Each structure stands twice: as C-alpha cells, then as structure tokens.
C-alpha cells in the first residue's frame, strides 16, 4: 500500500518522453520529499544477449564528485604491510586471524582489499564472500600490492558497475544534496566507463537499450543519453 507521501508524487512518469539529465535532475530532486538525503540512482537495461555470447559487465568507476557515502574498508595483508594499510585509511587490517573471523561470518565492512600473496588463503572463502559481492578481484583493483591507491580510491568515491542475468545495471551518482554539476560529472564518468566496456566486449549495436533516473524513494523518469553507446 502506497504512503501518503508517495501518492503526492507524479504518476506514470515512465510514459513521458525521455529527457537529458540536466533537465531531469531538478525534477528528481523535487520528488525527494523524505527527511533523509536520498540517493540519485540510474538504471540501465543493456543489450547483453549477443549471438556468440552473453555480455557480463563488471567494472568500477572512480566518481569525480564522490558518492556521499562513508565506506568501511578492510584489508587482508602481510604483517609487514599492515602499517601502510592503516596509514592509508583502512578501517580494519589483518592477516590469518582476520581471515578466520571472516570465515565465521564477521564481515562488518563494505569493501575488502587483499594483497596477491594473501589471496591464496582468502580465495577459499569464495562461498562466503562471493554472494555478498565482497570477494577481492584484480579487475576491480582490490587484489593489489599498491594498498595506498586501492584504499584511497575506495574511500574517495568508487561505484561498481555490474549487470545481472537479465541485463540490468543499477548505480548511484550521488545524493540529492550534491550540486547538479557534481551529479552530471559522475553521470558522464559512468557513461565513459560503459563506452569502454562496449569496445572491450566488441558489442554489435547499442550497448544500452534504455536508461532511467530516480531517487531512493522517488519515481522513475526515462533518460536520454545524448549519444548511442
């Protein structure tokens, strides 16, 4: 059952003609009528069914405007690198003992970074970390000896772009409190990343079939991307 607040929002917005993000941001923000700072979210439907294979996108993008979220970062590394990880801003740092804690379900973090030599031990916890999207991955920059860069990137504002089996991608470009300029910069960074993924996967035709923009507790609007990707 819809709340009184939701009933006051515009309806059938997805039936409206698509508009560019600069025209829709003010509308989306106006619909943020809750007491908290809602996220501004994108939803893409991609053309993942290709003749020869199914396209699976999983990558990260560094958002120039940040995410507006505080990310709790954990690091699994050798004792000799633990001080570097702590000085770089990691919230939790550990080795074998920390791995044992993860094994029994202690996972009070949002991002997990691991050095290559410790990854051999951590990889055994795939059934625990995998379903939660926490398993470190070299492609995502979370299996690395450059802990300072990985931690800084995670803290400064990263978003993961990943499609589900139906070709849907959901990603936030920031908060209602962000300036339009900051949200647009984040939006452009995501589009640039998707353009690279299209090239890397040699996709025929457009990568994106449709795109929508909304807020956490708002309604969706059809989004015009401006160019085919």
Please give the count of helices: 8
Uncertain stretches of 5 or more adjacent residues: none
C-alpha Rg, in Å? Answer: 20 Å
Query: What is the spatial order of strands in the main beta sheet?
Result: 7-1-8-9
CATH H level, superfamily name of the largest domain: Ribosomal protein L1/L10, rRNA-binding domain
Largest sheet: 4 strands, antiparallel
Any idea what the CATH architecture of the largest domain is? Answer: 2-Layer Sandwich
How does the helix and strand content classify structurally?
A: alpha/beta
Number of strands: 9
Q: Give the overall average pLDDT.
A: 90
Tally of structural domains: 2
Walkthrough of the structure:
The protein is an alpha/beta fold and 229 residues long. It folds into two domains: 17-57 and 163-222, Ribosomal protein L1/L10, rRNA-binding domain (Ribulose 1,5 Bisphosphate Carboxylase/Oxygenase), CATH 3.30.190; 73-156, Rossmann fold (3-Layer(aba) Sandwich). 32% of the residues lie in helices and 21% in strands. It has helices spanning 4-7, 21-30, 79-87, 96-103, 116-122, 126-129, 147-157, 180-200; strands at residues 39-46, 58-62, 73-76, 92-94, 111-114, 158-162, 168-175, 208-215, 221-222. Strand 8 and strand 9 form a beta hairpin. It is globular. The mean pLDDT is 90.
Keywords:
Rossmann fold, single chain, 8 helices, alpha/beta, 2 domains, 229 residues, Ribulose 1,5 Bisphosphate Carboxylase/Oxygenase, 4-stranded antiparallel beta sheet, 9 strands, 3-stranded parallel beta sheet
List the SSEs and their pairings.
Blueprint: H1 4-7, H2 21-30, E1 39-46, E2 58-62, E3 73-76, H3 79-87, E4 92-94, H4 96-103, E5 111-114, H5 116-122, H6 126-129, H7 147-157, E6 158-162, E7 168-175, H8 180-200, E8 208-215, E9 221-222
Parallel strand pairs: 3-4, 3-5
Antiparallel strand pairs: 1-7, 1-8, 2-6, 8-9
